[in-house]
């Protein structure tokens, strides 16, 4: 079981308050992702839950029990670090067995669990190697192995994929999601990458300057961002924001339209502009349109087959049913 | 052509390095050579370099006149004991400074090092009086304590530098894995710092072995190490250079051999982090 509740938790380093009072509940078995730009306090929040940092005030509960003052080892949580943090002087086998050894578990039980974790993570052939002899992806798997053998109440991941190259990152992302489905254990995952957040999470927690901007499922955040910050942060390419007369037509201070919700045409449309840079991904093409009189650049996501050239004048038509409206304070208008 | 210049420069550099090395080594070489001369050859002018009557008589006289093994044993106990005690105290100290630093950590480190800048003779009198009161004068345990205290700042500094190189996340991982503070230091930190700890031990054994000021001033007959053994041959009734040289050679031989065999470790330890 791993239900984690934060109740008015704050954290200050000296006079600087990095986490203002914050309430959050992560349900048992949930995959929660903390996402936000760097310096938003997401890693600090994870370290508070882990017990590696002490809260300044407030309460952390794990399965209803007050864990605020419980040392990290006794919280029943396992953590996977960005740098893997493997023990370089120990073999893979000893690395994975370490938490069990610390728990004074019987040797045959340790062996059984290490074998189990190694076969789940395809590490059986590497058990007698040192971390220095493994690739980045294998090291990350050892770090995950060290976490799963303990059968923790929850897993904490601190940007675990940011040291891997792009191809491996996608692979490991799927492996971690697969692991979550199989173990059905609570996972809290910190990342600055909104793609990781969208693809993996049951629940996304968007943070800015220690504040929670919005909590919801990936699609809730995509469809109904609560404010301009969340609207701009979730979704790739970024949502287009338009102010002024065009926004006033919708009775809003600012309107937001996602690049995939704008149709392009050579001959007719609501707006017109000149094609700037085109990014061809094969399946899709992103056009950056200038001189629309609406905003400096309007980004449009079109089919990969559409071929406009730099400087072409084209026409755009937004889908009216998915226009996001925001007031002068940047808050969503229902 | 560039290649020719490089190789000439290489030759010059090599010659220079050998020159500097020989200048540094020459006094030791001269001491060793003199130890095989007769007293007459030792003071003759112009000095004889290699062509003299080689003799071992100085060694047998020195061996007859004083108990070399007793001094050697004292040196081993004092150098080894003070280093071991220093390490036991310095490991937790360096751990706390490297991994849970406070606002004052840098100041404490500087303050500790500043004690090394104090002329030792400045505290000789109070320490001498304390030793009399505590009955530590001319005891090995007394010297172990004093040399440990003298070298502690260096031990802490060296270990602190090595520990700083160990990523904090690994220790945090150990904490998450359920290791207590003792287990964290024992199973994770110490094994990772072994090369650093080894070179710290080595350097401090050498420093303690060669330490002369305190060993000469705080010992008489019983606890004197090899430095006292050498000093006993610089007698007021006239110097016997050959015998003094034989005593010196016997005193420095063990540490010279230790240094020779561990030079790789020593150099690697001292440049740890800089050329990793």
UniProtKB/TrEMBL annotation, chain A:
Regions crossing the membrane: none
GO terms of molecular function: ATP binding
Record carries keyword S-adenosyl-L-methionine: no
Keyword vocabulary terms for this entry: ATP-binding, Nucleotide-binding, Transport
All residue ranges annotated as the ABC transporter domain in the record: 4-234
Statement: the UniProt record of this protein carries the keyword Transport: yes
Gene3D superfamilies linked to this entry: 2.40.50.100, Nucleic acid-binding proteins, P-loop containing nucleotide triphosphate hydrolases
Pfam families: ABC_tran, TOBE_2
Classification via NCBIfam families: PRK11650.1
Similarity comment text for this entry: Belongs to the ABC transporter superfamily.
Record protein name field: ABC transporter ATP-binding protein
Organism: Albidovulum litorale
From TrEMBL, chain B:
Gene3D superfamilies the UniProt entry points to: MetI-like
Taxonomic source organism: Albidovulum litorale
ABC transmembrane type-1 domain location: 72-262
Keywords: Cell membrane, Membrane, Transmembrane, Transmembrane helix, Transport
Origin: domain of life: Bacteria
Keyword Disulfide bond part of the UniProt annotation: no
Membrane topology annotation: Multi-pass membrane protein
Family, per entry: Belongs to the binding-protein-dependent transport system permease family.
CDD domains named in the record: TM_PBP2 (cd06261)
UniProt-listed InterPro entries: BP-dep_ABC_trans_perm, MetI-like, MetI-like_sf
The keyword Membrane is assigned to this record: yes
Annotated protein name in UniProt: Carbohydrate ABC transporter permease
SUPFAM superfamilies in the record: MetI-like (SSF161098)
Location relative to the cell: Cell membrane
Annotated TM spans: 12-33, 71-96, 108-129, 141-163, 184-209, 240-261
């Amino acid at each position: 079981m791993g239900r984690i509740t934060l109740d008015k938790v704050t954290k200050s380093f000296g006079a600087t308050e990095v986490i203002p009072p914050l309430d959050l509940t992560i349900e048992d078995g949930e995959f929660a992702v903390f996402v936000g730009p760097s310096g938003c306090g997401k890693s600090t929040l994870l370290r508070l839950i882990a017990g590696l940092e002490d809260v300044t005030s407030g309460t952390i509960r794990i399965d209803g029990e007050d864990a605020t003052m419980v040392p990290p080892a006794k919280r029943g949580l396992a953590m996977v670090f960005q740098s893997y943090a493997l023990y370089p002087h120990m073999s893979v086998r000893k690395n994975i067995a370490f938490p069990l050894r610390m728990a004074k578990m019987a040797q045959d039980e340790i062996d059984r669990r290490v074998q189990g974790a190694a076969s789940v993570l395809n590490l059986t052939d590497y058990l007698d190697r040192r971390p220095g002899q493994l690739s980045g992806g294998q090291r990350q798997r050892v770090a995950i192995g060290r976490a799963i053998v303990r059968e923790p109440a929850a897993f904490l991941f601190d940007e675990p994929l940011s040291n891997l190259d792009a191809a491996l990152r996608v692979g490991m992302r799927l492996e971690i999601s697969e692991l979550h489905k199989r173990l059905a254990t609570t996972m809290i995952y910190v990342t600055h990458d909104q793609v990781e957040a969208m693809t993996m999470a049951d629940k996304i927690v968007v943070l800015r300057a220690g504040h929670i901007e919005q909590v919801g499922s990936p699609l809730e955040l995509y469809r109904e961002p609560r404010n301009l910050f969340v609207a701009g942060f979730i979704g790739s390419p970024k949502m287009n924001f338009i102010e002024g007369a065009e926004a006033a037509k919708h009775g809003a201070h600012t309107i937001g339209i996602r690049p995939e919700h704008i149709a392009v045409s050579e001959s007719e449309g609501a707006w017109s502009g000149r094609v700037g840079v085109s990014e061809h991904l094969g399946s899709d093409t992103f056009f950056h349109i200038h001189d629309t009189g609406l905003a400096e650049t309007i980004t449009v996501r079109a089919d990969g087959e559409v071929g406009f050239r730099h400087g072409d004048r084209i026409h755009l038509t937004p889908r009216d049913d998915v226009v996001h409206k925001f007031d002068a304070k940047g808050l969503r208008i229902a | 052509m560039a290649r020719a210049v490089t190789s000439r420069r290489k030759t010059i550099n090599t010659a220079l390095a050998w020159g500097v090395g020989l200048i540094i080594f020459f006094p030791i070489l001269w001491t060793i050579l003199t130890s095989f001369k007769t007293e007459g050859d030792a003071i003759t002018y112009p000095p004889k370099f290699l062509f003299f009557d080689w003799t071992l008589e100085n060694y047998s006289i020195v061996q007859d006149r004083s108990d070399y093994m007793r001094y050697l044993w004292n040196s081993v106990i004092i150098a080894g004991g003070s280093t071991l005690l220093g390490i036991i105290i310095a490991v937790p100290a360096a751990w706390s400074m490297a991994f849970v630093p406070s606002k004052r950590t840098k100041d404490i480190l500087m303050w500790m090092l500043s004690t090394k800048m104090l002329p030792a003779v400045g505290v000789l009198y109070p320490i001498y009086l304390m030793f009399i009161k505590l009955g530590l004068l001319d005891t090995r345990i007394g010297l172990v304590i004093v040399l440990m205290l003298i070298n502690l700042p260096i031990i802490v500094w060296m270990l602190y530098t090595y520990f700083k190189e160990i990523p904090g996340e690994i220790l945090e991982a150990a904490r998450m894995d359920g290791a207590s503070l003792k287990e964290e230091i024992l199973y994770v930190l110490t094994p990772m710092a072994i090369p650093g700890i080894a070179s710290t031990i080595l350097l401090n054994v050498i420093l303690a072995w060669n330490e002369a000021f305190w060993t000469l001033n705080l010992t008489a007959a019983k606890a004197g190490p090899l430095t006292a053994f050498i000093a006993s041959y610089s007698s007021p009734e006239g110097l016997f250079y050959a015998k003094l040289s034989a005593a010196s050679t016997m005193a420095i031989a063990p540490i010279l051999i230790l240094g020779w065999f561990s030079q790789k470790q020593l150099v690697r330890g001292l440049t740890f982090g800089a050329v990793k």
